[in-house]
Amino acid sequence: MQTPKRIEVVERIPLTPVGKPDKKELRLSSGLPEFMSIHADVSVGLIGDGSEESAWSAAYALPIHFAPGEGCEYSQTNYALLGKIIDRLSGRPFTDFIAERQFAVAGMSDTRYADDRDVIPNRANSYARINFKGTPAASIFNSHLDWPPILRTAAGLHSTAEDSGSLAHRPRERLPPQAASKSRDA
């Protein structure tokens, strides 16, 4: 496979006439390799030196798995691209955009992007039973993952049972008209 040139991926995402990304670009179809790494202590990080810039550079330096749009592969890299699209179109960080446009509108005051070390009232602890190799661990253990902000589109969302339950049981018609119309347009 070919190695992609070092370019700003987000600038190449085609927009429709109304300024939205083409739907094919929202699929897991970048072809870029995974840039999240899992360490021996089951912590997560980014390839390269651990910085966002280094992770993108390292991903660009690796061979692509397929030409963009020609395949589908689950990876944190694809979700990071989605976050960058939202950053670009909204003009602010993905997490702020989602907090205002989704959580606040739905009344989810105890839902936020965080990592497992953050104290969030009424949140249940995270647990894992998979080791760093992706195979079952000998026992269940507390998860203490520090999700890098670039991975927050795929991980790091924390909520309470009450917030999750109220969203699941909230009919669309009960949302404010602005939110209901936006959820239908999505």
Terminal CA distance reads 34 Å
Helical content stands at: 25-40%
Strand content: 5-15%
What structural category characterises the helix and strand content? alpha+beta
| Number of distinct beta strands | 6
For the biggest sheet, the summary is: 2 strands, antiparallel
Q: What's the alpha carbon Rg, rounded to whole Å? A: 18 Å
How does the overall form come out from the CA principal axes?
globular
> How are the strands of the largest sheet arranged?
1-2
| Low-confidence blocks of residues | 1-9
Overall pLDDT score: 75
Number of helices: 5
Order of helices and strands: EEHHHEEEEHH
List the helices and strands and how they pair.
Elements: E1 36-38, E2 44-46, H1 52-61, H2 76-90, H3 94-104, E3 112-113, E4 127-130, E5 136-142, E6 157-158, H4 161-168, H5 177-185
How would you describe what is shown here?
The chain is of the alpha+beta class. The N terminus is likely disordered. The protein has a domain of 130 residues. The protein is built from 5 helices and 6 strands, in the order E-E-H-H-H-E-E-E-E-H-H. 28% of the residues lie in helices and 11% in strands. The strands form 3 sheets. It has a two-stranded antiparallel sheet. A two-stranded antiparallel sheet has the order 3-6. Strands 4-5 form a two-stranded antiparallel sheet.
